[in-house]
Design a protein that fits this description.
The chain is mainly alpha-helical. Helices cover about 75% and strands about 0% of the residues. It has one domain (about 1-255). The relative contact order is 0.13.
């Protein structure tokens, strides 16, 4: 088992080291996040002053929600599956498929290594954010459930990105598709505003979409909107979306591996 995992662990370490070489970019990312946290606090304070408040979320909880969502985005926006398009353009995908490794696991480990660096950046950013805004820290049980939900959300996000990038085997370019999905996800996942802001049927439809499993579920667990009695059902829904996208990714990859179209040749 160790021999099987070892290569992918090395891929992750190399990705971490590669990303860490851009130190200036690392520090600017931290500075940008701190500024965005402060601006979010100002924005929601002004909105609450005008009674534009999501249901069941007092101001301090909304600021907590927005801050945690911002820190989550630092991790979730890393897309290791973009390597698929690069390898297709360079023509190296054919030789990579001949190597004794699983390419999907390679993409996952490369993305995980890069993600680990940005996850480390969350710590100083969070400490600075605590000085700028009031962030609630939930009980250990809630924090643990949030961490588990966030892990599932990370995997859902990975397989969704994998499906989109694997389409490049047929189209060679997926930028427009990814841009559309990214915009839709930002609006409908609960990253920008809680889905509880949408009443009635619209809210129920948004919660039924897979995008809610990426941001909304972990965040609503964190701020206490999803109570302990609903944790299990929320995690089950996330896992169902993970299984659905996982099966789709498996099918697309199997078909793509039999149809290698290299751009330019």
């Amino acid at each position: 088992m160790t021999a099987v995992v070892a290569p992918y662990w090395e891929f992750a370490k190399k990705a971490f080291a590669r990303e860490a070489t851009y130190r200036f970019e690392v520090f600017t990312n931290v500075g940008s996040l701190i500024l965005r946290v402060y601006l979010l606090r100002c924005l929601w304070t002004a909105l609450y002053a005008q009674n534009a408040a999501p249901m069941n979320l007092p101001l301090h909880a909304m600021i907590t929600y927005a801050t945690v969502a911002l820190l989550m985005s630092l991790v979730l926006e890393i897309d290791g599956t973009r390597l698929i398009q690069e390898k297709l353009r360079e023509g190296t995908i054919a030789t990579d498929l001949m190597k004794p490794i699983s390419l999907p696991l390679y993409f996952f480990s490369d993305g995980a290594g890069r993600t680990l660096l940005y996850a480390v950046l969350v710590i100083p950013t969070l400490l600075c954010a605590l000085l700028l805004v009031h962030i609630d820290v939930p009980p250990p049980a809630t924090l643990g459930t949030f961490a588990l939900s966030f892990l599932v959300a990370y995997c859902v996000n990975f397989v969704l990105n994998f499906c989109m990038n694997a389409i490049a085997f047929w189209t060679l370019e997926t930028f427009a598709l990814q841009l559309i999905v990214r915009w839709v996800s930002d609006l409908l996942s609960g990253q920008i505003v809680p889905l509880t802001l949408f009443p009635g049927l619209a809210g129920r439809l948004l919660f039924a979409l897979p995008f809610a499993a990426i941001y909304s579920t972990p965040l609503l667990i964190y701020v206490g909107i999803i109570h302990p009695s609903g944790w299990r059902n929320a995690l089950i829904v996330q896992c169902l979306w993970l299984a659905a996208f996982g099966l789709a990714a498996f099918g697309i990859w199997r078909a793509a591996a039999r149809r290698i179209v290299i751009q330019g040749g």
